Amino acid sequence: MNILVCIKQVPGTSQVEIDPATGTLKRDGVAAKMNPFDLYALETALRIKEKVEVEGRGREVVVTVLTMGPPQCEKVVREAFMMGVDRGIILSDRAFGGADVLMTSYTLAQGVKKAGDVDLIICGKQTTDGDTAQVGAELAEWLKIPHVVNVKALGEITAKDITLTVDLPDYEIAERIPFPMLMTVEKGVFEPRLPSYRKKLATADREITWLKLGDLEDSDSKHYGLNG
Length: 228
Hints:
Oligomer: single chain
Mean pLDDT: 92
Distance between the termini: 33 Å
């Protein structure tokens, strides 16, 4: 089973400026951290990995993280390794800069296609810099797979599907969704674990896959970043 988690490096402070020419955040020189909502997505993936590998009679689960950003976003991938993630992919190219929600989801979709066969994609509910809560759903639409948002609990996991509890404004529902699929998780789904110092040492030299515009299936720069 292959699980992919989308993560993002966001400003570590609310004191950020907007570029008047592009309308995007000025990120240079600003302290950064992993998007807090993504920690819940990571924990969900790792809990599924542990559950399936224990109950699945030797069935292996590989957890990959995918992020888009400047080279310094490697820091959040290394942090994910320290939590127990197996693989990391970074989409980094000047052509991706200034992307809005639509172009961000499209770029991530191109990255997912390079990741190989993926059964389950997990995203945090939203990011603390954009706050749109739209990227997950749009990513699923680009990939033409089912998606469920506002997941608050997990149920049965089989080789073919997963049962989820979804938090809607007035009630909760249980949904059984076939793989491949995407879900976005609420903050209360699990308590995120802390990074492990032992895993930090063990993964210090772990290779990360870096992807540029020319590596993608669609390498037309007009479809990315501010151009897109």
